[in-house]
Specification:
The structure is a homotetramer of 324-residue chains. The first copy, chain A, is α/β, with parallel strands linked by helices and 324 residues long. Chain A has 10 helices and 14 strands. Chain A has an 8-stranded parallel barrel with strand order 7-8-9-10-11-12-13-14, surrounded by 5 helices. Chain A has a 4-stranded antiparallel β-sheet with strand order 2-3-1-4, covered by helices on one side. In chain A, strands 5-6 form a two-stranded antiparallel ribbon. Chain A starts with a strand and ends with a helix. Chains A, B, C, D: Keywords: Transferase.
Chain lengths: 324, 324, 324, 324
C-alpha cells in the first residue's frame, strides 16, 4: 500500500497518523515527493488507516495511479522519455580498447546517443567468452570520456557494483537477473539509472514488480527494456510482442526501451523489429553494433555492422518524427 | 519435391523424363507456369531424377526458391501485395443488414478497401452467438454490391463452400482451422482467394505448410494473415510477434496481412499493434470495426468504433508512405 | 445455462415454464436424463427463469456440477472409465492389411483392449503420406472382426463420417481439429463414441468447451485424450503436463485418456510418459505400436516395436493395480 | 572441451601435452578424477590437441559421456540418487521456531528424510513477506540438530553464503536465480551440495548448462530439481512436463528431484503431480508442508497440511517400490 500526502505540508500529519496506527511503514522520497509504504496489502482494511490528508493506493510505485505523467530518466547528457528517440549502440561484448574506440566513434558519428558494451557477460555456458570484466569497464569509461557518449553496461552481481560506480552511467540488469531480488533491492539503494530487462519467462506484471523492488528503495531512475520472451517459435530467438509496449505505457509511467537484437537472433531481422518498436512507441532502442560482426566473440549472428546500423538509424529517426 | 521446367518449351521433355522414371508425380499450373510435384522428398536422391531441363527444388511452393518475386493477390478491384496498404474493416460478426450497411458505408467513406464480416462464427463455447450463417453471407453480398467493397468472410467447413461461391470475394480460414487439411485441400481445388490465418499454437513453418496444401492444388491466391499466437502473457489476448512478418517475407513470396484486433483483445491496443505491423512491412490489415462495439454480439472489447477506426486509418496510411 | 429438472416427473412443468418465458431453449437427452439448454449465459438474470422444480447451472454439461459421478464410455466390449486401464494400441497409420493384421494380433496377445490406426492422416505437409483413406478404414474393420478388438481411428472432415459409420467403433478428433466446431457439432448429432484430443495450443477450458459442442448435441460418449501442448522446450515434441489429468478430473466427469507417443516424439521416452499418466490417474492409454517402426511411413521415431510395447503394458498394468 | 586422462598415471603426460600446445586450460578434480577443461569448443580442431592418452569430449561435465554411471549426492546422512526415494518436506517459509519445530518433528515422524524451509524468500513483489533471513537460518539449524533431519534452504545472493556455511546442509538455487551465473560460479568453488531448480523460462539444455557452471568449478554435488515451466495454461501455476525427467536421465548422470508444490499452485493437485514424478523416475521430492496452510505467510494455497502429507508420503513410497 502506497500512502501519498496530498501536499508536502501534510506530510508530518500523515507520518503521525501512521505512527499512531499499529502498522509498520517506511518513508521514501521518490520523484521529489515523500511517500509512505506499508506492507499492508489488503484493500479491505483501508478504513483502518487513520489518514485524511493522503491518497491510499494499492497499486505499485510504477503505476500511473501513483504518478500520472510519464517519467524522464537522465543519463549523462541524455534524457530518456522526453520525446526524442534515444539510441544506445555498441558491441555485445567489449573485446579490446581499439575495437570499442572504433565502434564508439563510428556510432556517435551516425547519431547514437549512448554507448552500450558488455564487460561482464552472462553466457549460457561457462566455456563461452565471459567478458573482460573490470578491464572492460575501464575501456567503456575511456571511450565514453573521449566520445562524450554516456554508457550502459550489464551488472551480474551486486558485489560488482563498485566497479560500475563512477565509471558507467547506467546499469543494465539483464533478462537472467530480472528476478534477482537481492540485486534489485541493492540498486534501489543507489541513485544510478537502471535499464531493467524483462525475464525471458516473465509476464509484464512480474516485470513491473521487479521494477518495484528498485523504486521502493527510493531509486526512481528505471527504464523498462523489452527484449522479447520465450515461445515455441523457432525461426527467431525470442518472440517480440508488439503488445508489450502499449501495455507498459498504460500501466506505468516509466520510460520504455526496446532491444530488437536479442529477439531477432539474426541481423537481417533487427531493423524490422526496431521499426515495429518505434511504431509502437518506444522511447529508446538498444542495438548491438560491431566493427566486424562475423568475428564477434559473442552474439555474432545478430550484431549489425556499421552499414546496417547507419541504415537503421536513419529509418527509425524518420519514423519517430511521424509517430511522435 | 518441386520440379520446374526451365522454360515452357521444355515442359514435354520433363514430363516424359518423369514418366520414364519410376516416380509418381502430379502436374499443376501455378502463377502461369507448369510445375511437377513429386512426393519424393529426400534430397539425397536428386541424381536419380532424369531431368536436365528443369530446376529441382526441395522447398515448398510458398518459397522464394520457387518464385522469387513477391506475389499479388487480386480480390475484386483490390490488389494485395502491390505496395498500397489494403485495409479490410468490418464487424466481427454480421448481426443485421442495417448494422452491416451502416458499417460498410462508414468504413468505405473512411478509406477501407474491403469489408470483413463473419457469418459463420467459430466461438469457443456452443452457447455464444454462432453467427447468422447463410443469411449473413447474403447480407455481405448485398452490402458489397451497394458499396463496391470486396468482401472477406470465414468458412468453417468445406460443405459451406457453396454459400460462399459467387457471394464472397475472399475466403478466410481462421486460426482454429489453420490445420484443417481437408478444408485446405478443398480450397486448393478452387480459384477463390484465401486469407489464411495462423493457428494459435503453430510455428511459422507449420503455417507455411498449411499454405502449401492450398498452393499444391493449384490455387496460388493465398494471403498469410498473422493474428498472434498463444503465450503465457495475460495482459493481452494473444502475443503478436514482430518477428513473424520479416520471417514470412524472407521465406515466402506470398503477401502478408496482419490482424491486430484479436491479439489486442482490448480496443485501446489495436492502433498500436496496427502501427507495429505496418512498420514491419505488412501488405494488408484486417480490423474489427463495429457501429456500437459495447453492444456487439461477439468480441465486444476489441472492436473499434468509427472514431477509433478513423484515427487508425489516417495514422497507418501516413506511416505506410514512410515505410514504403 | 443448463436447466435440469429435479426429477423426470417435473420435466413437463419445466418445459412449460420455459415456453412461457421469452427465452429460446433446446431440450436434449443426455446420460438418461432430460436437460434444457438456453443460450442465456448471464448468471445475473437467473431469477427471471420461472422455474422452481429444476437446478440452474451456469457451467458446461462436461462439469461435475451437471453430473457428479464419473462417466463410463462403452466402445464395443470395452468400458472406458470403469476402473480398468483401457489400452488402445496400433500403428500411427494403416499401411497394409498384412501390417495391420500382424500388429492387431500381436497387441491383442500382449493385452491391448482396442486397436488404433490412422486411415486419414493429418500431416503437416501435403507431400507426406496422407493415409490409405477408405481402404484403411476397411482394413481396420477386417482386423477388428478377426481379433475382436474394437477400433479407434481419426476423422478429418464431417464428410468422411459415412466411411466410419458401422466400420469404426470410436471416432478420434485430432489435435488439429480440436476446435473444428462444424465437425464437433456434427458428431454431437451422432451417438458414436468420440476420443477428443486437445488442441496443441489450447487451454483445458477451451478443450472442455470443445467437448461441450459434442455433449450439447446429445452425445455424451466423449473421452478426453491428452496429447501434450506446445512449449519452448525442444528436447521432446510436445510438453505433457502432469497437471492436466487432475484438473480434468476435478472439473469434469468425462473419462480421460493419455497419448504418450506424440509428446515423447522419441520412442525411448514413451514408457516413462505412459507411467506418469497412469500414476496421475488416466483411464486409458493410446499407444503407437508398429511391426517395424524404423520403416514406418509416419511418426517413425516415436512408434514402439512389439518388445517395447510388451514391456510397457506389463509395467503400466502393474502400476494401475497400485494407484487404483 | 573436456579432456579426461585414460588413467591417473597418464595425467602428467596429458598435462604436459596441453602445456606444449598453445591452448589455455584448467585442471579440476571431479568425482575423484582429474579432468582438464579448455575453452576450445570447436570439435573440428580436435586433431590439434596433442593427446593420445585421453578422451576428448565436447559435451558438458553433466553428460553421461563424461560419467556413465548415475551420481549420488550425499547430504548429511541422506544419499540422493541411490535408489531410495528421498523426501524433503517443510514450510515454504520459516515463520517461527515453534512452527518449524512442530513441522520438523511431524514430517520426520511421517518419514521425511530432509527438512526444507525458506529463510530468504524471492517474492514477486517487495511488499510480500521476505523471510526471516539469518534468524530463519538459525532456526533451521536448531530444528535440524533436534530432529536429525538434514536441511535445504534457498540462497538469493552469493553474499549470503556465510550464513549458510555450517548451518544448512544443502543450498537451493531457485528458479529466479537459475541463470545467476555469478552465484553458480561461486557455488562451484564450494563443496556444499546444491539443489538447482530450473528457470521457469529455460530449456533443459540451458538448465544443464547452469549445472555446468557449478560442476566446472569442481563441485559435483548437484541435484537437478524440476519445478515446472511457464505456459499458457491457467488452471495450474506452472506446467510440469513429464518428459523432463526422462530427458535429464538420458542426458545427465546427475540425480533428479521434483517439486510438485509450485507447479500445482493448489494443494489438491500436489499428490497427483508427486505420483507422476515418482512414476517417471525422480530420485527425490521436495514438498511444501505447513502446520496451518491457510494461514501461511507465503504460498498458502499450495502447501499441504500434515494429513495431506501423511497420505502423500505413503502413496509415493509404495509407488517407488513398484517403479524401482
Amino acid at each position: 500500500m502506497i500512502i501519498i500526502p496530498n501536499n508536502e505540508a501534510n506530510e508530518p500529519f500523515v507520518n503521525d497518523a501512521l505512527m499512531d496506527s499499529s502498522m509498520s511503514f517506511r518513508k521514501i522520497s521518490l520523484y521529489g515527493r515523500s511517500l509512505f509504504i506499508t506492507n499492508f496489502s489488503s484493500t479491505e482494511n483501508i478504513e483502518y488507516i487513520p489518514i485524511k490528508d493522503a491518497m491510499v493506493i494499492s497499486d505499485g510505485l510504477y503505476s500511473r495511479k501513483v504518478k500520472k505523467d510519464s517519467t524522464n530518466v537522465t543519463v549523462g547528457n541524455v534524457k530518456i522519455g522526453s520525446g526524442k528517440l534515444v539510441i544506445a549502440a555498441g558491441p555485445c561484448a567489449v573485446e579490446s580498447e581499439e575495437q570499442l574506440m572504433e565502434i564508439g566513434e563510428r556510432v556517435k558519428e551516425m547519431g547514437a546517443d549512448m554507448l552500450r558494451g558488455g564487460a561482464f557477460k552472462p553466457r549460457t555456458t561457462p566455456y563461452s567468452f565471459q567478458g573482460l570484466g573490470v578491464k572492460g569497464i575501464n575501456m567503456m569509461k575511456k571511450v565514453s570520456d573521449y566520445t562524450g557518449l554516456p554508457t550502459v553496461s550489464e551488472i551480474m552481481d551486486l558485489s560488482y557494483y563498485k566497479h560500475f560506480d563512477g565509471n558507467i552511467d547506467m546499469i543494465q540488469v539483464g533478462s537472467r537477473n530480472s528476478q534477482n531480488f537481492a540485486l534489485l533491492k541493492f540498486l534501489g539503494q543507489k541513485g544510478m539509472p537502471v535499464l531493467l530487462k524483462n525475464g525471458m519467462g516473465n509476464t509484464i506484471s512480474e516485470w513491473l514488480n521487479s521494477a518495484e523492488y528498485i523504486l521502493s528503495g527510493g531509486n526512481g531512475n528505471v527504464v523498462m527494456c523489452y527484449r522479447g520472451v520465450r515461445s515455441f517459435e523457432d525461426s527467431t530467438r525470442f518472440m517480440m510482442d508488439s503488445g508489450a509496449i502499449p501495455v507498459l505505457r498504460e500501466r506505468s509511467h516509466l520510460p520504455v526501451c526496446a532491444d530488437p537484437s536479442h529477439p531477432a537472433g539474426k541481423r537481417e531481422y533487427v531493423e524490422t523489429l526496431a521499426m515495429a518498436a518505434v511504431a509502437s512507441g518506444t522511447d529508446m532502442l538498444e542495438i548491438e553494433v560491431h566493427n566486424n560482426p562475423d568475428e564477434a566473440l559473442s552474439d555474432a549472428k545478430q550484431q549489425l555492422d556499421f552499414m546496417g546500423f547507419s541504415k537503421l538509424i536513419k529509418k527509425v529517426r524518420k519514423l519517430k518524427e511521424i509517430v511522435g
